[in-house]
Amino acid sequence: MSQRTLVLLKPDAVKRGLVGEIIGRIERKAGWTISALELRTLDRAILEQHYAEHVGRDFYEPLVAFMSSGPVVSMVVEGERVIEGVRALAGPTDPIAAPSGSIRGDFGTITRENLIHASDSEESAEREIKIFFPGIS
Ligand code: CMP
């Protein structure tokens, strides 16, 4: 089943020079393609939309500060079961719990700075793609 998903390479990934490494892992999956890609610094307004479900949580304000601390790479990735697939490549939210071989397991240590975001469902993907790439349908 071909799907599309919204992927963000967070400011820690960009600052640490891990963009090529992470995109390489995505590109090497058979049949997946990157159909939109942008480097940009996110402002509070877009982060409030993206993280609407987390407003009011104790980690929300530090998360917004971190996510606006430098440029991120935003991408739309398309292909077979790509929603589940990119989340499998990323590993679980807590990088210490993430297995080695996953992006977070290989490169992360703290939960906030966990390198990559990937949509968790088809509904989230469509919602998030509209936020980051309003020009594509
Ligand atoms: P992600 O799953 O992409 O989207 C929500 C983000 O909030 C998550 O990645 C982490 O960056 C951050 N996050 C989630 N839970 C915590 C937590 N307990 N402490 C700090 N940051 C968190």
From TrEMBL:
Q: What SMART domains does UniProt report for this protein, alphabetically?
A: NDK
Keyword Cell wall biogenesis/degradation set for record: no
Q: Where in the cell is it found?
A: Cytoplasm
Q: What does this protein do?
A: Major role in the synthesis of nucleoside triphosphates other than ATP. The ATP gamma phosphate is transferred to the NDP beta phosphate via a ping-pong mechanism, using a phosphorylated active-site intermediate.
The gene behind this protein is ndk
Its keywords, alphabetically, are: ATP-binding, Cytoplasm, Kinase, Magnesium, Metal-binding, Nucleotide metabolism, Nucleotide-binding, Phosphoprotein, Transferase
The UniProt entry's sequence similarity note says: Belongs to the NDK family.
* Cofactors that this protein relies on: Mg(2+)
Record's catalysed reaction(s) = a ribonucleoside 5'-diphosphate + ATP = a ribonucleoside 5'-triphosphate + ADP; a 2'-deoxyribonucleoside 5'-diphosphate + ATP = a 2'-deoxyribonucleoside 5'-triphosphate + ADP
Annotated active site residues, numbered on this chain, are 117
Task: State the oligomer form and interacting partners.
Answer: Homotetramer.
What is the protein's given name? Nucleoside diphosphate kinase
Boundaries of each Nucleoside diphosphate kinase-like domain copy?
Answer: 2-137
Which residues are noted in the entry as ATP-binding? 10, 59, 87, 93, 104, 114
Q: Which GO terms describe its molecular function?
A: nucleoside diphosphate kinase activity
Q: What is its EC number?
A: 2.7.4.6
Name the InterPro entries for this protein.
Answer: NDK-like_dom (IPR034907), NDK-like_dom_sf (IPR036850), Nucleoside_diP_kinase (IPR001564), Nucleoside_diP_kinase_AS (IPR023005)
Q: Name one Pfam family in it.
A: NDK
